[in-house]
Amino acid sequence: MFSPSTLGGIVALTLLTPLNLVFLHNAYVQRREAEPLTALSTPSSFLFKHMPANQVALEFKIDSMPISDEELWTQLVPENGGVVETADGKFVVAMYHQLRCLEEVRMAFLAAHNRPIPGRVPNATAADICLGQLWQILQCNADITLDPAVLVERNGALVPGSSGEGVDHRCNDWTRVRDVVEGRRSR
């Protein structure tokens, strides 16, 4: 048989080995998850060099962006489409790609409600892909602003909902992003 000290060492080794494996696994997973973020953020550093961190308050108003106001929607994306050129190549600032996605969904919505935009043909496939991307963007940005709950009718029942109207949200200053994209760099 084993001596008491040897038996204690075997028990300790048996208990600590699974804990070490869990620790190593967690360290590996965290490292694996962090590597793509570091790699993906490299081209974005172009914007961060030219745009100091700045946040603004955005108060949501229901009538601030009517769905059928073509002129307002056209002004959201700069003429260059949100493209910036860095030492690594040309890139589209994600905010402008996301706004173009929202435009695809808007066109599909208007067409589905018999209000198509003259001269523009909605692309159902693009709208479908864009809805998936917008869903991911909302999760990525995780706005934790608390909107007051109100009761709304849905399918004949009153359920909690929110319009978000009149509530301030903390946002990155999109006007500074546009300045950088259009060559008016903030320093």
Description:
The chain is an alpha+beta fold and 187 residues long. 52% of the residues lie in helices and 15% in strands. The protein is built from five helices and six strands. The chain has helices at 4-50, 70-74, 94-112, 124-141, 174-181, and strands at 55-59, 83-86, 89-92, 150-154, 157-161, 168-172. The strands form three sheets. Strands 1-6 form a two-stranded antiparallel ribbon. Helix 3 crosses helix 4. The chain is globular and about 55 Å long. Mean pLDDT is 74; it is low at 7-16, 18-25 and 28-41. Pathway: Mycotoxin biosynthesis. Belongs to the ustYa family. The chain crosses the membrane at residues 6-24. Keywords: Membrane, Transmembrane, Transmembrane helix.
Topology:
Elements lengths: L3 H47 L4 E5 L10 H5 L8 E4 L2 E4 L1 H19 L11 H18 L8 E5 L2 E5 L6 E5 L1 H8 L6
Antiparallel strand pairs: 1-6, 2-3, 4-5
Helix pairs in contact: 3-4
